[in-house]
Amino acid sequence: MSKVEEFLTKEEEQAVVEAIGLAEKETSGEIRVHIEKTNSKAPYDRALEVFEQLKMHKTHLKNGVLIYLAIADKKFVICGDQGIHDVVGDHFWDSTKEVMAAQFKTGNFKQGLIDGIMKAGQQLQQYFPFEEGYTNELSNEISKG
Fold first, then answer.
1. CB of 93 closer than 8 Å to CB of 58
2. Residue 120 in contact with residue 100, Cβ under 8 Å?
3. Which of 26, 42, 56, 112 could form an S-S bond across to 100 if both were Cys, CB 3.0 to 4.6 Å?
4. Quick one: pLDDT at residue 1?
5. 3-class DSSP assignment, residue 52
6. pLDDT in tens, 73-95
7. pTM here?
């Protein structure tokens, strides 16, 4: 098995997917998680590439949030599209990253992801509440590279 498959058990992965669904329940925002072994680019640059590859930049309200992890590199990035970034600013991304890093340092990757997802969901609910007729624009499944 590669490091990507070993990073989360199937049960942990399912718990993360369920957290995404729960976090998105009261918002029109979108949250995705992407995990890959490594990359040769700066983590933020790679996260922006993945953001585009996952078509997160095409959400109606520009309110997608990506949690990107390069596990062998021990790097992760949380970034959002212009709509959410304009209302939460840099402090939100930094504080969310700190919450996640605290869990990651103890090896609790599932809980770190869930904590980051839920914190992002709270902000999305505040600024982009669920709208009647809204349909989920992006998959909640974890993407892997």
1. no
2. no
3. 112
4. 43
5. helix
6. 999 999 999 999 899 888 888 99
7. 0.94
